[in-house]
Amino acid sequence: MLLSAYLVLGALFAVRTPPWQAPDEPAHYNYVRQLVGGQLPVIEPGDWDQSYLSQIVGAEFAPAYPVDGITYEDWQPPLYYLLQAPVYRLTGGSLTAMRLLSVALGAGVVALAYVVGRAVFGRVAPALAVAAFVAFLPQHLAILGSVNNDALSELIIAAILALLVTPWPDAPPEGGRASRRLLALGLLLGAGFLTKGQAYLMAPVVGVFLLVHYWPRPDRLPRPVRSMQLVRSLLLVFVPALLIGLLWWGRNVTVYGGVDVIGKAAHDAVVVGQPRTAEWLAQYGLAGTLGRFARTTFVSFWGQFGWMAAPLPGWMVGGLLALTGVAALGLLLAVVQAQGSKPPRPMGEGWGEGSSTQGSKPPRPMGEGWGEGSPAHRSQEHAARSASEDADSATRHPPPATRLTRHSSLVARHSSWA
């Protein structure tokens, strides 16, 4: 039901929004047009004309102003546009049909938002709330109802998050199920490299997750085994991801030169004349700049349509501000309640003789590890101990060679997974 409601609203945005009245839509559309014409776009001088863009936006994209020359998104990675190319061919370049493909990709984002919410909260109601927020946020609907590579980028990011937060198998990464999940992460990350720069942020997220999940710890497998698992997991993810990314990065270095692997330097050299932070600071001062930044960020998050020219009414923004405050207060109360609902720690737990650390191990014989029973004095005490004490000690504490043999067999058993 929720997904159906999203599809209806998304389709309405796609059909009812006037042509080109979505941020950067003509430039994204023209990228697809160039691909269909057999050319992988290259950003170059002339792709950005600030004066003409201001005129055509002010004229609300009247037919007298052609959009063919608006091509300043030519530096973007090509995967989203490659998906749009068959739609362009089959429909003769129908803008509405291409928008509807973005809406369909957005449906995947909504579905994966539910998966992530269910994995994080463990209950249906919060998961539905997460999916509903993603589905019905007005600004999000407007973006997903346009020709824009955000739709595919969000889908890839949501898929990566879903793989990370759903329960992971305890089997080593060379096991079938774990290996498939790691390879899927690598392929998704590589697809993100070919879609949009914001997907690059998932690379450190995935890396940190793998470090935490496979980092050797005393309560898990022996350190050599766990270290091998960590290395294998990193290789299974980042080798395919980097190989996929190299296809695009190598092309950019060849076209743009230097180390401009994502084409950002070429973009910045062409797209000039936009407002700069330094100019705002000089005009409005620090307080004025921060205020305008906060207001624009808040309003555009909820709904500032077209080319930022049609914000939500003031009364609605005020209501959303109040709603945001209530939500923040609810989150704070939930955190406090969660902290207060923890059972009290038993007397002495966490330190001294009653600590959970000591409780998980057999009692240490008097003197072992400190004082006269420390390893430094053990060799001297052996000469003075009686034979019965030596025998009792050997029974309670196996000699090092025995412990080494047990440890080696454990390592050998886990190494056989390789």
Strand order of the largest sheet: 1-2
The number of E-state strands comes to 2
How far do the termini sit from each other? 46 Å
Basic shape? globular
Number of helices: 18
Sheet with most strands: 2 strands, antiparallel
When the domains are counted, the total is: 2
The pLDDT mean sits at 82
Spans of at least 5 consecutive residues whose pLDDT stays below 50 are 348-384, 386-418
Describe this protein's structure:
The chain is an all-alpha fold and 418 residues long. The chain has two domains: 2-274, no CATH class; 276-328, no CATH class. Helix content is 66%, strand content 1%. It is built from 18 helices and two strands. Strands 1-2 form a two-stranded antiparallel sheet. Helix 4 packs across helix 5 (95-121) and helix 5 runs parallel beside helix 8. Mean pLDDT is 82; it is low at 348-384 and 386-418.
Provide a quick synopsis of the model.
The protein is an all-alpha fold and 418 residues long. It has helices spanning 2-16, 25-36, 50-58, 79-91, 95-121, 124-136, 138-144, 150-165, 176-193, 202-214, 223-256, 264-270, 277-302, 314-340, 356-359, 375-384, 387-396, 400-415, and strands spanning 304-305, 310-311.
